[in-house]
Amino acid sequence: MIIAVLVNVDKMKRKQKTFYEDAKKTISQLQLSQEIELGKTFEDISKIYGIKSKFISKMCAEKNILANSHHKKIFLNNMEFNRNMNIYKYIEKASRNCPDLGGDLNNQLHMAIGASTEANELLDAYKKWFAYGKPLDKINVSEEIFDCFWYLLNLCRMLEIDPEKGMDTNIAKLQARYPEKFTEYYANNRDLEKERKILEE
Ligand SMILES: [Mg+2]
Q1: What residue numbers bound the domain in which 54 lies?
Q2: Which tens digits make up the pLDDT trace of 43-55?
Q3: Which of 5, 59, 75, 181 has the smallest number of CB atoms closer than 10 Å to its CB?
Q4: Residues 155 and 102 in one domain
């Protein structure tokens, strides 16, 4: 009797494993990340792709993809937020050590070049992992991400671009480009006029 129960449990476990492997074939990691970035919940994604939400949750945990769900809450609760910092306070503080090279062109170009060189430093951190098999230096990755931020947000300040409005616009543009989800078709058939109108709003 006990053996029969154990065999059945083992069978069920194997079945679940197969279902999970099938689910992973239904949605790619890239698609899953994009759905999460668009603000979809596990339940939303579950309905769209016909995959059990517990599998989506498992995939997100496995791939370290954060979602508008308990994973995100756990992540956020574990983060030590510096409540004294927000994007506008950051810009104000970041402006203090931004040199004046004289003239709009010099200053703005300095920021655009700087963002690009810092993005290359970010790539270099990944190159060490990808090409040389060293462990990813997450501290260095974080440093380079925020070095990019420093240049980009100083550029926003110089151009009087509101970063929060910019984030909203970026998401609105992507929602117009991919009305339901990311597909290669939508990626290759963009309505640039519609996107431009959103950017100009
Ligand atoms: Mg750097």
Answers
A1: 2-78
A2: 888 888 888 888 8
A3: 5
A4: yes
